[in-house]
Amino acid sequence: MSRSRPVQTHHRQNAASASAGFGHGLRALPVGPGGVPRQAPANAREDRFKLDPLRIALFLLILISLSRLHLHFGLDRFRPALLLAVITVAYALFNPRSVSTANLLRYWPAKVMVALAVTACFSAAFGLSLGGSGSFILFNFSKVLILAFLLIAGIRTAGELKFFVWAIALSCGVLAYYALFVFQLGYDSASFAARLTNWYTYDSNDVSCILMMGLPLTILAFQTSNTKLKGLAGLILLGIGAAVARGGSRGGFVSLVAVGLTLLLFVPHVSVIKRTVFVMAVMAGLVLFAPRGYWDQMETIVSLEEDYNWTSIDGRKQLAERGLDYMKRYPVFGIGVDNFARAEGTISGKDEIVSSGVRWTPAHNSFVQAGAEMGVVGLVLWTWLALAGVFGMRSLRRRLPRHWRRGTSDQRFLYTMTIYMPVSLIGFSVAAFFVSFAYEDPLYILAALMTATYVCAEKELAREKRHAAGLTVAGPLPTQTQRPVAMRRPAAMAGR
Fold this sequence. Notes:
Helix 8 (204-223) packs antiparallel against helix 17 (409-432). The chain has helices at 9-21, 53-67, 69-72, 80-94, 108-126, 130-154, 158-182, 204-223, 227-247, 250-265, 272-289, 294-299, 308-311, 316-329, 340-346, 366-399, 409-432, 441-474; strands spanning 185-188, 193-196.
């Protein structure tokens, strides 16, 4: 009898073991000729992003909350935000797999928002006006928190997170379009400069707060998108600079400088050339569209002691001083949410100084607003939410593998998100120093995106860990240099 052919079992056994080791929903690597495993494609382990009514409704909620697009078309009487929120909740109830509620309170931003909500309720109970604060919480602040938690539940993958980052970028684009083509320049007698004075969505300081939180995220969208979307993001960057210029806000200019310096000096893993190009694109919009008298107005920043904000009884300096006094008089829970203007008209003492009528003035500073209206507890919580993410995202980036910088598209996006989210928080915080935005959408949307970043990063890390465990269980895979082991017949039968 002739000798049998060698049977190559070693490769087959190892290939079978490798397949068995890729459990927990992970597919085995394809095995090529000779039993050598082929490399899986870069996007093989990415979650596919699919649009559904819930994601579309949340996208539109962000868009109208930040850009107030509906006001331009007179749609406010239809309550579009409420309608979209109802659609989102209804879809989630009938399609529970479309959301993830397991992570709602797992990470610190969500916990801080809940603590702020509780503090706001206590401030209403112990403040100047229970009815005023209570109605504001019920009809305004609650909507902001609902949107934030809907976002946390609705963002399950990096692709969905990127989708909502684009919602912020497009909101900035809408505001830039308004500034360039809708609202007209007028003469400001206080500043002797031409500026946009007829905003019906925001004033110039308010719109700068939205633009400065969105600028870094627009750069993020530029870096992580295809060519066509890069062009759109580039136009938005140019428009952001133009909108800041035409708005004529000195607070907006200071915020833009702060964001620009942060991008140039404190953004890791992005080349100096790219950072410079991004900043120059925004500055080009600022220079090209700066109206008459803009730079003269900006020069007054260095002579604050001669400015009305320093000398007037309703200027920012004296407003801040009175806000600190309210916090001293109501240190635990403050004067109550949305009661700063009421305090100005009732307990400020301005009636003893002004004879022609007392102006009920808002705080014009989000930090002062939070401290005066929610006390020391509220100030600490609000500041924590605004600034702790700068260090939280940096800590998360240190935990992420370095190869994510050039990994799958999801990995690259999540890694880059931890770079630009701190800049966005800094931009918001600096701009918030000039506006009363303690209970407005921007910060809470950023907190929701931070939470989603934690969720998606942990999910991707766990997936990589399972993938690595699968390789370990399967044992070492054969290389092309290994020779097959032949199964020979017993010697007694060799001569037959």
